[in-house]
Amino acid sequence: MSRSLIPSFGDFLVYDNIFDDMNREMSRLHQHMMRDFRHMRNAMNRLTPTMEPSDHSSDLALREQLQLIRDPIVTEADGTRRMKVQLDFSQFKPEEMNVTVKDGQVTVHAKHEEKSDTSHVYQEFSRSFVVPEGVDADTLACSLSRDGVLTVTSSPLPMIEAPKEKKLAIAQEK
């Protein structure tokens, strides 16, 4: 009489196939979920400016990006100064976007929804920023480039006059 160390409860082959099928299906679903997660992360990275230096060799890129967030006033090549904010909206159609100005604050909002038999994609983005001092909110305009970059600009700001030099008389004490 020989004894088996492995207990026998009938036909394991049926149960093995069921668990193998479940395991394959779970792996497939996990791969789809991770693919969608990577897609979502890439979309968010395109919508949100990075806060890390691009070359990692210095903090200069980070300081420049933070400065543009704090003060979106740019000086163009011809010397004119204006407010200019650019955002990547390549994932959205123009009719899905909305830009409003209220109480000195610009709000950019976009919403996209896509449904099919096998998936549901929902993307929503909203960003608000304060109109800098000296910028007339009534002069703000928006444009959308062919590659999906939304630009919010103001009319040129008044030129700041350089301080004039004044010669001071020297008084002699007696």
UniProtKB/TrEMBL annotation:
<keyword id="KW-0479">Metal-binding</keyword>
<dbReference type="Pfam" id="PF00011">
    <property type="entry name" value="HSP20"/>
</dbReference>
<dbReference type="InterPro" id="IPR055269">
    <property type="entry name" value="Alpha-crystallin/HSP_16"/>
</dbReference>
<keyword id="KW-0862">Zinc</keyword>
<feature type="binding site">
    <location>
        <position position="112"/>
    </location>
    <ligand>
        <name>Zn(2+)</name>
    </ligand>
</feature>
<dbReference type="InterPro" id="IPR008978">
    <property type="entry name" value="HSP20-like_chaperone"/>
</dbReference>
<feature type="binding site">
    <location>
        <position position="114"/>
    </location>
    <ligand>
        <name>Zn(2+)</name>
    </ligand>
</feature>
<dbReference type="GO" id="GO:0005737">
    <property type="term" value="C:cytoplasm"/>
</dbReference>
<dbReference type="InterPro" id="IPR001436">
    <property type="entry name" value="Alpha-crystallin/sHSP_animal"/>
</dbReference>
<comment type="similarity">
    <text>Belongs to the small heat shock protein (HSP20) family.</text>
</comment>
<dbReference type="InterPro" id="IPR002068">
    <property type="entry name" value="A-crystallin/Hsp20_dom"/>
</dbReference>
<feature type="domain" description="SHSP">
    <location>
        <begin position="64"/>
        <end position="171"/>
    </location>
</feature>
<protein>
    <recommendedName>
        <fullName>SHSP domain-containing protein</fullName>
    </recommendedName>
</protein>
